[in-house]
Design a protein that fits this description.
The complex is a heterodimer of chains A (302) and B (307). Helices cover 78% and strands 0% of the residues of chain A. Chain A has helices at 3-6, 14-21, 25-35, 39-66, 70-77, 80-113, 119-125, 128-131, 134-145, 152-155, 166-191, 194-202, 207-236, 239-245, 255-264, 268-301. In chain A, helix 15 packs antiparallel against helix 16. Chain B has helices at 8-16, 20-49, 53-62, 64-97, 103-115, 118-129, 136-141, 150-161, 164-176, 179-186, 191-220, 223-229, 239-248, 252-289, 296-306. Classes of the chains: A mainly alpha (302), B mainly alpha (307).
Chain lengths: 302, 307
């Protein structure tokens, strides 16, 4: 291959490389960035696929909502049964995410700071809720916690019922959300500077003070991000919850189930209205998570 | 405290860790929590499946309905994963290698399916292709079934697994920059050659990682698929849906037998994932141990002149 054939690179901006090429790195970089081929085709395909799979179907949901009148919409999304489902979904998701913050931090801490036999296996197992299909998680948690299950049989005589009521919803959501907190906190904890802890100790801080004043502020953004991710996932979760919840109207019926039961009664308008509310909430949560991640990145960068 | 000890190696220890009893208590609590929430559910799947012995287990898996569910799950993953793979690579290429306006907005949009409830994901396809949807009448006229049929299941699965591979690749390719690709271009490689011989070897572990996670979710998706499937036994039932039907019919052993296959899939996924992580780490370490390379601008003219 001759140099003359390769030098005017495909695409636009080939001329800019010639004079700038020998000067210094910045002009080369800028010119060459444009010169890498495939921008138009990859961006085009990305946008096409995104529209086809995500944006057009999602806009169908919004347009369908606009066919409802405002009173219709309001009635659909504020019916007592729907309101009860919001309370349960939000309450249970919040509780589960808070539990996950505490135990997720603990698991991440133990995995990063300590050594013990079987640590690699425990580390791999953290991702089980990502890998295990939600329906499987749902039926096995139910089997464990039902009155005749491994755990349930000891709890029922004590008057504690964890399956077929809102408690079950919380437990299923704890299972689903655990990896989010562990996997966001773990890398930050790994990168945390030990020098700061040593300095705190030298200045006379106890271990607990060091944790509260030095370590915790450093991992707080990651913890908050993990919390938001676990919460967002819990809000929309369906598969693992419906088996264990018992699904009693007004008591243990989650919002996604409301959408399904409306669909089964061919109430497309009602299902769409509730789904729009959920979509709005998840979009807000997505923006919050993005902002948190940016904050976290800036913190660790600066 | 022992801060006054003279040997420096002794001074370090109490500084960076806790007293042994604190350590063991924390490890203990973490392990008990993991055991209760992760190990027990996994163990319960297999015990329940084998409650009536291996014969009943094998019997449950021989059911034709179970077989068609397994087949549909495999078909769905076989279509959804490659499509999302192509998309993931294309999206990562244009986002990581170029600067353009609206890039961060595009990244957010790619993440969107992660935060949409699976039930909503199913519903939107019903609204587009269902009997009362946009294309419903047209599809009915031409006798094409999408919702409550296999295409709907595949579409819903593509939606929920949409960001997996792209999300894995974008940060990876951004971190790697595009110097190597530029060098390949200058040396005369075509765009396709650059991708195949330069980019792909660099991203292969990240790509594999994304594919493994995408596949696990594609095979295990329940909520979205449940909305669009219509639950026709032997026709539009994937494995997770089949588990639900059997469970609701109080065929516990059969339900857990099918569930145990999915649990095995999860275990294989975790093992593969750990293996990929391990290989990737080893490669990074090997690269770090290598002597520093010659700066690229000095090499390029020589190479050009030599050919």
């Amino acid at each position: 291959m001759s140099a003359s054939a390769t030098y005017p690179l495909p695409g636009q901006g080939g001329g800019a490389l010639g004079p700038g090429g020998e000067q210094g790195p910045p002009p080369v970089r800028r010119a060459a960035k444009r010169v890498l081929p495939g921008f138009n085709i990859t961006l085009g395909f990305t946008l096409f696929y995104l529209c086809l799979i995500v944006l057009i179907p999602l806009s169908a949901l919004l347009l369908k909502t606009f066919t409802l009148t405002w009173p219709q919409f309001w009635e659909a999304v504020t019916a007592p049964r729907v309101l009860a489902s919001y309370r349960l979904t939000f309450g249970a998701s919040l509780t589960a995410a808070l539990v996950n913050v505490v135990f997720g931090l603990l698991v991440a801490w133990v995995l990063v700071r300590y050594t013990f036999p079987g640590k690699k296996i425990v580390d791999a197992l953290v991702d089980l809720p990502f890998a295990l299909p939600t329906a499987v998680a749902g039926i096995s948690l139910t089997a464990l916690l039902a009155g005749n299950g491994w755990i349930g049989q000891y709890l029922e005589p004590l008057g504690i019922q964890l399956a077929f009521n809102p408690n079950g919803v919380v437990i299923a959501l704890i299972f689903i959300g655990l990896p989010f907190v562990v996997r966001t906190v773990q890398p930050v904890l790994e990168d945390a500077e030990k020098e700061l802890e040593e300095a705190a100790m030298c200045l006379g801080a106890t271990r607990w003070q060091t944790f509260v004043r030095v370590i915790f502020p450093a991992i707080a953004p990651a913890l908050l991000t993990g919390f938001a991710m676990a919460f967002a996932r819990a809000i929309g979760e369906y598969g693992s919850v419906i088996f264990i919840a018992g699904n009693m109207p007004m008591i243990s019926e989650i919002t996604p189930l409301i959408i399904i039961s409306k669909l089964e009664q061919y109430d497309y308008a009602g299902a769409t209205a509730v789904a729009t509310v959920m979509l709005g909430i998840s979009f807000v949560l997505l923006l919050v998570i993005n902002a948190l991640q940016t904050w976290q990145r800036n913190r660790s960068g600066g | 405290m022992s801060a006054t000890t003279t040997t420096p190696s002794r001074v370090r220890l109490p500084h960076t860790t806790e007293a042994p009893w604190v350590r063991y208590t924390l490890i203990g609590i973490a392990l008990v929590f993991m055991f209760l929430f992760l190990v027990l559910p996994l163990a319960a799947v297999f015990t329940e499946a084998l409650r009536k012995g291996w014969d009943a287990y094998a019997e449950a898996l021989k059911e034709p309905d179970a077989w068609s569910a397994i087949r549909l799950t495999l078909i769905t993953a076989a279509v959804a994963v490659p499509l999302n793979l192509v998309f993931g690579v294309a999206a990562a290429w244009c986002i990581a290698k170029y600067e353009f306006r609206g890039k961060s907005f595009l990244t957010t949009l790619i993440d969107l399916p992660f935060s949409v409830s699976p039930v909503v994901a199913g519903l939107i396809y019903v609204l587009v292709f269902g009997a009362q949807g946009w294309f419903g009448p047209w599809l009915a006229e031409h006798d094409i079934k999408i919702v409550f049929a296999v295409p709907g299941i595949i579409l819903a699965t593509i939606f929920v697994t949409f960001p997996f591979i792209a999300r894995e690749l974008i940060p990876l390719m951004q971190a790697q920059g595009s110097e190597e690709e530029q060098a390949a271009q200058v040396l005369g490689a075509s765009g396709w050659q650059t991708f195949w011989y330069v980019t792909l070897p660099n991203i292969k572990w990240g790509l594999l990682y994304g594919v493994i996670l995408c596949n696990a979710r594609a095979m295990g998706e329940f909520g979205a698929v449940s909305v669009v499937s219509g639950h026709i036994r032997g026709q539009t039932n994937t494995m997770p849906l089949h588990v639900e039907i059997l469970y609701n019919e109080y065929q516990s052993v059969a339900a857990f037998a099918v569930a145990s296959l999915l649990a095995l899939l999860a275990l294989v996924t975790l093992a593969l994932k750990s293996w990929v992580e391990w290989r990737h780490e080893r490669e990074i370490k090997a690269a770090a141990d290598m002597p520093p390379e010659q700066p690229a601008p000095q090499v390029t003219p020589v190479a050009l002149g030599a050919t």
